[in-house]
Amino acid sequence: MFSVKRQLNKIGVLGINRRNAEFTLKYNSRNRYPLVDDKLLTKKLAQKAGIAVPKLYGVIETEYQVRQLDAVIQSHTDFAIKPSRGSGGNGILVIAGRSRDMYRKVDGVLLTREEIGYYVSNIISGIYSLGGQPDKALIEYRVQFDPVFETISHQGVPDIRVIVFLGVPVMSMVRLPTRMSGGKANLHQGALGAGIDMATGTTLSAVWRNTIVNEHPDNGNPVAGVKIPSWNTLLKIAAQCNELTGLGYVGVDLVLDKDKGPLLLEINARPGLNIQIANRAGLLPRLQFVEQHKQELSNIEDRIAFSKQHFRA
Amino acid sequence: MTKRHLTYLTLVLVFIGLAVFLYKAVVLDFPLVSRARSDIWHIEAHLSFVSGKDPIKVSMHIPRNSRQFALVNENFISRGYGVNVATEDGKRRVHWSIRSVKGAQNLYYRASVRRMNRDVLIQRPEKSGLKEPEFNGAYREASETLVSEARAKSADVEGIVLELLRHFNAPQPDDNVTLLLGKKASVQKKVDLTVQLLALAGIHARSVHGIRLEDQKRNAPMFHWLEVYDQKQWLSYDPLTAKPGISEDYLAWWRGMEPLVLSQGVKSPLVNLSIARSEMPAVQAALETGELKKPFLLNFSLLSLPVETQAVYHVILLVPVGVFLLVILRNVIGIRTFGTFMPVLIALAFRETHLLWGVIFFTALIAIGLVIRLYLAHLKLLVVPRLAAVLIVVIGLMALFSILTHKLGLERGLSVALFPMVILTMTIERMSVVWEELGALETLKQGAWSLAAAMLAYVVMTIGYLEHLVSVFPELLLLLLAATLWLGRYTGLRLLELPRFKSMTEIKSDV
User: Fold this and answer.
1) What is the dihedral sign for C-alpha B82, B83, B87, B93?
2) Given an 8 Å threshold on Cβ–Cβ distance, is B511 in contact with A12?
3) What was the ipTM of the complex prediction?
4) Nearest chain B Cα to A171, which residue?
């Protein structure tokens, strides 16, 4: 057991304690958290900075407004409902289409108008929010993901997570939903996480439930060696997020839409640590390297170049 | 910078904690281990009542020096009241009076008693002191029959007393006894009747009311027994076992048939007795004899608090220990529990229910609550009313549990009421959300971890030695605080992160 610990320390695996004590607590000031904890605020902030986000169809803030839900969703055949303060991708309902007066989820299950209304009320009363505070439900554009991921994801939308530290993209992965994860891009729930070579934007081998795999468990298609389109644009969006939020250490969640290109989904002030398993590399050496060179990195081009040069796989 | 600051703070805390601890342990000779049998006890009577409009007069019996016990350090805490202690017929009473006062009142009588053995001159009770009971008709006849029966079946005073007590305790008492005592008579009533019947037989007897010296008793019960004058001394009889002699642990509070408290102008008077073992006989003894000036530390220690409050703090002071344990479990080992400190609160409840019953009650409550919560999910209720509904159901279940277990004769079941119900409700809610989000397996896993943490906290928090240490040396909490602060900067990998990241060690990293 101690030898495992020694090896992990040698690789530079970042644990929760160290992430909290030396990165999130040190570089993320508390008063900036609301900007990222509330997705509606993040969205507005990003739009102001010219970053593309999924289009917002409507916001439901009070129980009374739930009755007006129809007005928002009537004109759209497909959409996504998200809690504004949700965490870890929980509480997201994606409607892919309609059957008569019913709404069809991605997995084919049909919901009535009442069930959607109840779902929205639950979001408002804070069931998915951190600490159970009252929340808002966002109804927004349903992302049509880029065909590059067609063969290696099941139902849901694959998203790209980039850890950005002091403006430098440090590590990234793409999370691919599986049958087991029920279409959710959450590694805890069985989604596949594939590391990405920062220099080229090509996927590396993936991790699935703590084991390393090279094929998608549902269909056997290879997950490594997929070149992610618009990689530079993705890095550029991610690299802006520290300035945008005033937080020094964030996880940026991006998605590739087949029509609209890279979109910013959300920013996380306490990004998870599984990304290290997906990349089979520790975060700590990279973070410390950025800390040492932070003075030299003034503009965004420098920072991206720095990342590509030093954090190749 | 922060690191150095933290180091200094930790060192200062450790230094103060250790210094006070050593001073108390070495110089003041506070005991490091709990003494099995103490010679000094603190007793306290807390008299509470609500004042009326009229002037108030309250009097209460208080103990007096006896053959086995000497009273030292008596205190009357009663702001604004006139206090007067009077002794009549060998009975001591404290009289409190005040002309006008408003609202709820609290009066305290506090004393330390020292166990000793000495000779006390026993006065022969006067013949006129013998009061024959004023029984008439059937009552008179029944009591005379009982006395003469007892006299016929015995040879001496002791024989009569024991015969009478046996009569009263018979599983099927005869008609005479039932007539005089009624059904299901209290011990006090039996004792009083024995005294009256003995008077009929010309024997001096009196009822005694007292407490049992046991450690950390709040709401200590009053015990009743009998004293009979025989062979030039007062001999005690236990009315329950109908045997001569009582345990030395009993301290007589007062004698006679009068109630403990007599009052005028007050509403709902209530007496609460507390008993605590003195943990520092050496200091206490030195203080009493004036060898030692009362140290400053002692004036500001928990020992200066009312005994009743001290008993509460004995438990409260264990909470930091449990909390510290949880810090280790969560930040060093890395287990996940429902609610940060929920296991500590559950462990506190376990202290009352004991482990096995506690685990059974807890599991049952959570399981039933969860089923109900999952059922309520179908009704599509809003969150706050739903939480309220679950809370109401949880309380109902707790009551039901208590009733059921009481009917089954399992007294432990009554203590289920001590479970923190709001915490239980929140736990049920959290569990059901995790259930919906991450599935049953994850829920059960976290639930099992929480229960395991609670059990571990219980085990640690019931270590008698630990309880003794933190209550006699609360400054040790400063050391605990220092350790907690230090753990607050622990940045190493958590134990459970090792298996999580283990797969990464199988390949070489190239950064």
Assistant:
1) positive
2) yes
3) 0.76
4) B511
